[in-house]
Amino acid sequence: MNEKTTSDLENLRGLIDGVDQQLIHLLRKRLDLVAQVGAVKHGAGLPIYAPQREAAMLAKRRDEAQKMNVSPQLIEDILRRLMRESYLNEKDVGFKQINEDLGDVVIVGGEGKLGGLFSQMLTLSGYQVKVLDKDDWASAAQTFEGAGLVIVTVPISITCELIRDKLSSLPSDCILADLTSVKTEPVKAMLAAHSGPVVGLHPMFGPDVGSLAKQVVVVCHGRDSDKYQWLLEQIKIWGARLVEAEPEKHDKAMQLVQAMRHFSSFVYGLNLYKEEADIGSLLQFSSPIYRLELAMVGRLFAQSPELYADIIFAQKESMHAIGDYLDNYSQALSLLQAGDRDAFVAQFKEVAQWFGDFAPQFQRESRAMLQSVNDMKTD
Ligand SMILES: C=C(O[C@@H]1C=C(C(=O)O)C=C[C@H]1O)C(=O)O
């Protein structure tokens, strides 16, 4: 490189640094404005997440970007990332309390991670939260005395038994809810143990989400839904989307969405281990999709084996769904063994047709994910 090139580069890089610094100032300004919006919404009891506003804003910015020859996708990516930041900052102002007359909230299993998250969200919304965990049963009767809402969030394997044995003498107007990832049996157990309002909830996310904005909570109505309507409103204020379902329908979906999904990730990891794969060098050769896949599998093994065992073993029926998967795997393998490429292609086409419009939709979604996986690479 000659001297002129070096100094040209330095000058230009200095200018870029200046623009990036301005960006930080602009970001600060934006965060301050969003904080003001947060405060206004808090006062009015509005959820921070405003999908219509977001859609309208994104459409306008994409349009403006296009006119300035800036990629619309670039501004959309940046704004979506900024909006995620907005949801996180919302916790600084807390949330509007929908039910000001509720007694205490008691979280049974509140020392668990999900219990901790709900405890935090309820506390940020002005509720008095008490936690009851394994060692606190001696004083439980006293804790339950002033309870307006009891939330059960203990391992699935002990949920129903605990509801039956320990929660049969709650105050009659107290709401009994659970956060278990299966719903049929826990909802039945709650209805049998308690004569007051009952609702089954299943947060479709782990405790490591920074915000509930856009997350899904499944609601299975039990009894006296008018008495716990406020709780649903409260969860909506946290930004979550509620999806109502019959417990049986929910549980059936979970066989695929959770049990099968986690089981196949488990086997994928197990297989890498048995094959003595060298993860480090696989990563070096990895395509973005492989890296993303490995991340999805690897993250399983960073978490609690008991939690995954609980989810996978929760429903006997999952065994059948997983067994079907194994059958399909064997049949597909036999095409490979027979060298029947044409049959494979025909089968592929059949499945693609069945996916319909979802296939291109998933392709678009995964493209963005793959690009951000690639962005995160540092070497
Ligand atoms: C700031 C707001 O709240 C949220 C955050 C937004 C943002 O960061 O631009 C936009 C819409 C909302 O989901 C708002 O409603 O304007």
TrEMBL record:
Sorted keywords for this record are: Amino-acid biosynthesis, Aromatic amino acid biosynthesis, Cytoplasm, Isomerase, NAD, Oxidoreductase, Tyrosine biosynthesis
Name the PANTHER family for this protein.
PREPHENATE DEHYDROGENASE (PTHR21363), PREPHENATE DEHYDROGENASE [NADP(+)] (PTHR21363:SF0)
- List, alphabetically, the PROSITE patterns matched: CHORISMATE_MUT_2, PDH_ADH
- Please name the taxonomic classification of the source: Bacteria, Pseudomonadati, Pseudomonadota, Gammaproteobacteria, Alteromonadales
Q: Name one GO molecular function term.
A: prephenate dehydrogenase (NAD+) activity
Q: What is this protein called?
A: T-protein
Give the UniProt subcellular location, in the record's own words. Answer: Cytoplasm
The source organism is: Shewanella psychropiezotolerans
Q: In which pathway does it act?
A: Amino-acid biosynthesis; L-tyrosine biosynthesis; (4-hydroxyphenyl)pyruvate from prephenate (NAD(+) route): step 1/1; Metabolic intermediate biosynthesis; prephenate biosynthesis; prephenate from chorismate: step 1/1
Record domain Prephenate/arogenate dehydrogenase: where: 103-366
InterPro entries reported in the protein's UniProt record = 6-PGluconate_DH-like_C_sf, Chor_mut/prephenate_DH_T, Chorismate_II_sf, CM_dom_sf, CM_II_prokaryot, CM_T, NAD(P)-bd_dom_sf, PDH_C
Q: Where is the Chorismate mutase domain?
A: 3-94
The gene coding this protein: tyrA
